[in-house]
Amino acid sequence: MASWVRSVTLGIVLGVLSVGAWEASSAPPRSSSPTVAAVAPVDPPVHPPSRESRTEDERNSVDVFRAMAPATVFVTQNQLVLDRYSLRATEVATGTGSGFVWDAQGHVVTNYHVIDGARSLSVTLQDQSVWPATLIGGDPMKDVAVLHIDAPASQLVPVVLPPAGYELEVGQKTLAIGNPFGLDHTLTTGVISALGREIVGYGNVTIKGMIQTDASINPGNSGGPLLDSSGRLIGMNSMIYSQAGQSAGIGFAVPYTIVQRVVDQIVNNGEVTRIGIGVDLVDDRIARRAGIDGVAILKVRPGTPAEKAGITGLRAGVRGAVVGDVIVRVGEVDIHDFDDFYNALDPHRPGEHVEVVLVRDGKEWSAHLDLIAVGVD
């Protein structure tokens, strides 16, 4: 019994000595001078990032948005809706989109599809003031419309156009401002993904030269400005390619050159003038069923360049209508349908000369014609 107690006592003593030895060996060496307890570091106060702390690209985006957001507007269209119970017609907002201030005289530009069918229109500026808008004119074939509001010039910030000779390049920065899903003055950025896209527009006519961008464009962005890194207008956001109805990184904008040409005609003349040679054309669907490749002349208008050049339209034959001349080329552009013909003439002005190649009875012949203003939309 005594030996068991001694063994236990000895074990405890050795255990205590062992613990003391571990603590001693692991402790830091003693200093001959007193030590000062370390002070825990204090986090510096949090301040908003300064402008200098942002990247150059961030500063550019901020500057462009601050400068051009006031030029972007919110367009609302209203229609009469009949209450089936009270049989009363009430004017309600049925569509929204974006637009931008064109000049200090109160002209506002947007997509034609944003305002089509509206009974009345209103424009909301960045300061949230709402102004009744009047439709001055539009071109459904280019999806461009011009409105007017009576806001004072002091409240209007017009967009800035690029200088003459300005050329767009794939890869350059783009900034889109608009009102997607009613969220006013939303900024998205991206790049020009491609140039010269051919997209079937609202008027079911191919718009050539469209700008493709990956800057996010969603419902409500239509009609808003697409800007370059200097804040200049390079296009008008118009449509997206998407299977879900929202941005998939493929958006399209009408080039500023087309927008400017249409707007100038509407503002200066109150209407859009078409360029032509003085002919009416056979409907594309009928021409295709007849196996015609090109645009067939339906009739020639009296006193026009086409009549003077000897161009002929459909004529009566023993077994029905006989095809007259078919236009197959304008200048260097091959013509297969109305879209081709329209787009070949569109860049020109009245009085300019073009060579038109036609087919008559299976043989090609050419005519040099002066272009004229032939129609108004």
Output the CATH class name of the largest domain.
Answer: Mainly Beta
- Overall mean confidence score, pLDDT: 81
CATH architecture of the largest domain: Roll
CATH topology of the largest domain: Pdz3 Domain
CA-based shape: elongated
Count of individual beta strands: 22
**What strand line-up does the widest sheet have?**
1-2-3-6-5-4
Structure overview:
This protein has 377 residues and is an alpha+beta fold. The chain folds into three domains: 67-155, Trypsin-like serine proteases (Thrombin, subunit H); 173-270, Trypsin-like serine proteases (Thrombin, subunit H, Beta Barrel); 274-376, PDZ domain (Pdz3 Domain, Roll). The chain has helices at residues 2-26, 56-68, 112-115, 256-269, 284-289, 305-308, 338-345, and strands at 72-82, 89-101, 107-110, 120-124, 130-139, 144-148, 173-178, 186-200, 206-213, 225-227, 233-240, 251-255, 273-276, 279-281, 295-300, 315-317, 320-322, 326-330, 333-334, 353-360, 363-370, 372-376. A hairpin with a 2-residue loop joins strand 16 (315-317) and strand 17 (320-322). The longest helix is centred in the N-terminal third of the chain and has 25 residues, at 2-26.
